[in-house]
Amino acid sequence: WHLRECLLGLQVLAYNRHTYETVAQLLIVTVVPAPGGEPPYQGEFLVGNRNVEELLPVAAQEIFLGATAGVWEQDDLHVINITSALDRGGRVPLPIEGRKEGVYVKVGSRGGFSPCLASAASPQSRFRCSLGQQPLASCYDTFAPHFTIRWCNLTLLQVWPSPTSPGPVWGSGVLEEGGDFQPPTEVPPRDLLPGYLVTLLVPLAVAVLLCLLLGHLMCCRREGV
């Protein structure tokens, strides 16, 4: 059994950044799996000069994919996910100089990564980023000047298809000839009497000793006796 189509209802709550007015809307989303499955090569870019709502329109995504094709050297790119940097632990920008929150954009492709992307995500490039230096990039940045990419946050993933486990095989429901039911082996009987006596007699003996001690103290240790 395979999932062909799924309807998902989302209640979107939005607010105005300037007036703080809120509005709610019920959004019905139809989720259809990709015909060829999940793309095996995925790259996630951090766009530092954009907010998440600026990359949601289709026109903005097409512009971003065109810039991504320049460094990826593939023509079958498509956007997989768009996430605000605030959801990844980013800080709210100061309301000065038109600063943006930042957006993580995940792009997928059937083709492999270009040497430019591989060098930018290499361990040598990560080491340079840890020293505060510019990462390794052996190609022209086609994102500029529209998109400012934080190359030190570039993440490249190679997703392998997971094998599908076969489902249960249902029989006819009729017991085959000669296949008598074999109950599990019987548990040997246990003698519970010693444990019962210990549980009962030990507290009783302690109670008797306490009563005798208390009676001795109250009756035989009184003044004048």
TrEMBL record:
Residues 40-156 form the Sarcoglycan alpha/epsilon second domain. The chain crosses the membrane at residues 193-215. It comes from the Eukaryota. GO terms for cellular component: sarcoglycan complex. The keyword Membrane applies. The keyword Iron does not apply. Signal peptide: none annotated. Keywords: Membrane, Transmembrane, Transmembrane helix. This is SGCA protein.
